[in-house]
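Sequence dictates fold. Below is an illustrative record:

_____
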Amino acid sequence: MRNLIKNKLLVFKRASILLVVLTAYSCGKKDEVVVAPEVAFGKWELTGNSGYFFRENRKNEKYVHINTDNTIDVLSEDPLGFKRVKSKIVTVSDDQITISGSGEGGVVIYNYTLAEDTLILENASGKTIELIRNNNIPEVSDWFEELTILSEGPAPWVEDVDIAYNGTHIVYGNGRESETIGLVNTDNFNLDGEITTTHNAFVVEVEKGDASDRSIFQGNDGRDTFYAYTENTNTFVFKSPELGAWIKGLASIDGENIWVSSGNEQQLYHYNYSNQEIVQTIDLDFKPQGLDYQGGFLYVSDGAKIHKCQTSPTLKPVKSYGIKNHRIYGIAYDGTNFWISAWVNGSYKLIKTDLTL
């Protein structure tokens, strides 16, 4: 009995010693835990004396989302109210942000310091960007509405062109890839017909109205004029005055007026061809692409998004739309839905969207 009690006491002492050792080890390990420094993920607002991320939006960048999925979204808004989003891949460490595909050498590395709610980035050339943390900035979804693709098919040829709708078919500009303008079937995307032309018509439009002699408008390569031909006989009607080089969009208002976009000049023109008068010229902060005019609104593509704009008393965007990772060059309305000509994943597509009037 005495030996049994002695053995139990020995076991208890050893257990107590082991508990003390484990507790001490645990406390020692707890003291060695290193808390990772706060990194730059979050929502930010650019300060008034900040630099910029992307050159094309340098005057208009407002908000930045640095996301934990390794993306960055830079939201900009120009003086006219056009909203744009630039999204890129980023890598974030505890002292550097690397932006891939920035257009400035492919990759830009920023060293950063983070003090409370102020984030300061500086690259190797000394350019600095200053941001203030603001969890109340707009979400990307507040900046533009994501469209749904209802159907899509391959473009008839490889060109970034504007498009139109003639009542039965999508009219597809020929650019330099074809000698004829295409008429695309909206059900199967087959090329059902063609319009002969002597122009490299990167932009096409159908005149509003049901007149038997209504016109098909055509641009010509990078020139600053466009042409009108009757739809039924392809007879020359008129040539516009000089506007801006690289006409990228045409949008018929009615049987006398048309909107025109110039990529080179970054301008929109309201042209009255009945009076041969340039009624209005509007300066933009971006290179406009395709246009359409429907329901009293002008739809303008900036190459990435579509902006629905009021035109009276002044031009003002009221809503923006887009499809992630799609470059949008042309816009057309089939009476129910809007179509776009787009570039995505290395190929050109003709796409029917869920956007309606």
In short: DSSP finds two helices and 29 strands in the chain.
